[in-house]
Design brief:
Chain lengths: 169, 169
DNA sequence: ATGAGTGCAAAAAGTTTGCACCGCT
DNA sequence: AGCGGTGCAAACTTTTTGCACTCAT
């Protein structure tokens, strides 16, 4: 009753990540605790990819009331994945990378071997093709992960200029 | 001189995995040792996906002359990846999965959430689209990983029959 | 002989878990 | 009161590494 967000445009995200998470928790007989709220707010306050350790750094070394332990961060990341708010995108230096999967359009990544940069791109055709392929195999698709590897524009440039610079020292 | 394999059809794999690996090792100033040969032969004697531990199991618990230590298996897996003979395909239960990337056509996977099965498929259109997308970003693609998630044909079937069977016990 | 390569055991790195205590409902 | 949740520390898993010895060229 008196739900403010219900009046937002259907094109926008009508429910906040915290609310969405609360919904999910309820279906599992779980509660939205202060720690869970803090983690979700922290996670959705940035749009960049992150790994568990980066999040732990931001949350478990503080002295205020928003400190959350390492174990809880890991436990909540698992829940956020299960609830569809986050998804793992890639593995970098042995760590899983996460990104927002709620309120953010489907996209894929170009990953540079050289500098490790992730560039997002979107392409409708791919999803269409995948639906078709899945259908042919009797497979019901509910998502995908596509990583394109190679050299990004910056790293393609031959390092000749750098040599010259070094030689001048 | 007198290279037997050079007379094979260009459509077939003209060079064995061991030879291909030897070539790569040479470019790195490395040698093909007996251990490396054993590992490559073992890896290419099966076509299924595998993780490091499965390979270690097959190679480091034997008493004959084909035993190889765990460390060496890990070290050689890295080399096989660098040489382009193997590639990592997915992560399952916290372990990296490998598959042949030499003498085996480019393909992608349908991965079932329920039973974990990997089904391979091939689709030309996808590579074309990726080349195009990469080009638009000034990115030079040299490969990709595409995993489609969902439910496989078997797991889509509702488990009603199973219940009936169980009830009859 | 010389430097690459191996095996072993220890270490690292990332993640999970057992347990006692805490707090919401 | 009861059950879910947290923090801590210890455990675990997978992978990497230091070191002394070995082997191929």
């Amino acid at each position: 009753m008196g739900d403010v967000v219900s009046e937002l445009s259907a094109l926008e995200v009508a429910v906040s990540p915290v609310d969405k998470f609360t919904e999910y928790l309820a279906t599992q007989g779980m509660r939205l605790t202060m720690e869970r709220r803090i983690i979700v707010e922290e996670v959705f306050s940035h749009h960049e990819h992150f790994d568990a350790d980066q999040l732990v750094d931001r949350l478990s070394h503080r002295n205020d009331s928003r400190r959350v332990s390492r174990s809880t961060v890991y436990r909540v990341l698992t829940l956020l994945e299960e609830s569809g708010l986050l998804r793992k995108v890639a593995r970098s230096a042995g760590k899983d990378l996460f990104e927002h999967d709620y309120g953010y359009p489907q996209h894929d990544h170009l990953i540079c071997h050289e500098c490790g940069s992730l560039t997002e791109f979107r392409n409708e055709e791919i999803s269409d093709i995948l639906e078709k392929v899945a259908g042919e195999h009797g497979f019901r698709m509910d998502g995908h992960r596509l990583e394109v590897y190679g050299l990004c524009a910056d790293c393609r440039r031959p390092p000749k200029r750098r040599h010259r610079k070094l030689d001048m020292v």
